[in-house]
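Homework help board

Subject: predicted structure for assignment chain

Our instructor gave us this sequence and asked us to write out the predicted structure in token form, then describe one feature. I got the tokens but I'm not sure how to describe them. Can anyone check?
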Amino acid sequence: MKRLAGKIALITGAASGIGYATAERFVAEGATLIIAGRGRERLAAAYGRLCGGDASHRTAHLDVTVEEGWVRIVEEIDSTYGRLDVLVNNAGSAQPRTIEAMTLGEWREIMAVNLDSVFLGTKYALPLLARSGHGSIINVSSIIGVVGLPESGSYSAAKGGVRMLTKVTALECAAAGNGVRANSVLPGQVETPLFGDPTEAGELLSRIPLGRIGQAREIAEAMVFLASDESSFMTGAELTLDGGYTAQ
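My token output:
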């Protein structure tokens, strides 16, 4: 029995990195996917590799910072599938700047992509997730939302916000009795386009007890667990996957 058989899942930022690896694992475990992203060509290429000719899956062009886009995509999911079982708020971006050098516009852009998007996705997808009766929200935070890193003020603040928003979501859903769970995943240094060239990470890599950076597929395995009924008693929790970085 496939672990996600019969589940409808929406994944943002699914064209590359952790989002793509998660989509790949979800398909393998039997989920029906709506893969969302901002770049149409990259999204179409990812869809072709992931879904082939299976017309049950969908792509959705979505700027996660735009409220109207979320309204539209939720309406489309409703009319096509009638419910949503899993929401993976994965889209994110980073822009290294010191606090002194960062402009207000740059700050707001990072907060919008990393934190506002999670609020919007949660707000508009919740009715469909509740209709499922066993909905799962998985928010991608970061260990940089737990420990500080120079030149990461906006990213750290946003990812710390994702952690806390997830906990509040979990408590509100539990109080409502709607069957929706919410958990966050906190990756450490993972080899993705957002991380950059791992050979240039220097001291940061030397501080990882396991002696290497993570792979996107390793984060995707945690996503499968949180999306599945195996984690049915887990809500408001954080899964940290960082090679031991925050254990020090």
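Reply (TA_rk): Your tokens look well-formed. For the description, you could write something like this. The helical segments are 17-28, 40-51, 67-81, 104-132, 153-176, 203-206, 216-227. That's the kind of observation they're looking for.
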